[in-house]
Design a protein that fits this description.
By secondary structure, the chain is mainly beta. The protein has one domain (15-40, 49-146): Roll (Pnp Oxidase, Chain A), CATH 2.30.110. Helix content is 9%, strand content 47%. The protein has two helices and ten strands, in the order E-E-E-E-E-E-H-H-E-E-E-E. The chain has helices at residues 75-84, 88-91, and strands at 15-19, 22-24, 27-31, 35-42, 53-61, 64-69, 93-100, 106-121, 134-140, 144-146. The longest helix has 10 residues, at 75-84. InterPro entries: CHP02241 (IPR011747), Phage_T4_Gp19 (IPR010667). GO terms for molecular function: structural molecule activity. It holds the Pfam family Phage_T4_gp19.
Length: 148
């Protein structure tokens, strides 16, 4: 990047979700793109400074939460039902969260692996409101990588 060239951040409202290679539209919100590495404290037995040293531990990934308006598309519910029926091995899917710029070009992508729906939450209903009915699905997974 040349000196003085400005790169503005992308807006977070234009994105799409792919699960198992199938595009899923209409998500209102995605959260949980979070990766961390534990640190392990240790002390050398002959360390005269009494300093704690740090080693990298296990990698941890937060659950990904997807929220969308309810439609007659039952694919995500059927996926969750696979897990409830004990078919977790068959249910595991890879997927991606893809951020787009204002023109619809892909500008960032996060890939997750071996995901399965660990929780589904249905909408709340209120006869005096006019909001869209939203359901929430939470995915647990075994890895997250930013590929773009």
């Amino acid at each position: 990047m040349a000196t003085g060239e400005r790169r503005d951040p992308f807006r977070g409202f234009k994105f799409r979700v792919q699960i198992g290679g199938i595009q899923r539209a209409g998500f209102r919100e995605v959260s949980g793109l979070d990766a961390a590495t534990d640190s392990i404290d240790y002390r050398e037995g002959d360390d005269k400074t009494l300093t704690i040293h740090k080693l990298p531990g296990l990698k941890k990934f937060a659950n990904i939460t997807l929220k969308r308006g309810i439609t007659n598309d039952l694919d995500l519910w059927k996926w969750r039902k696979q897990v409830m029926d004990g078919k977790i091995k068959e249910a595991r899917q890879n997927g991606s969260i893809i951020l787009m710029d204002d023109e619809g070009n892909d500008v960032a992508q996060w890939d997750f692996v071996a995901a399965w729906p660990t929780k589904w939450t249905g909408p709340g209903f209120n006869a005096t409101a006019n909001e869209v009915a939203i359901d929430t699905i939470e995915l647990t997974h075994e890895g997250l990588d930013r590929t773009k």
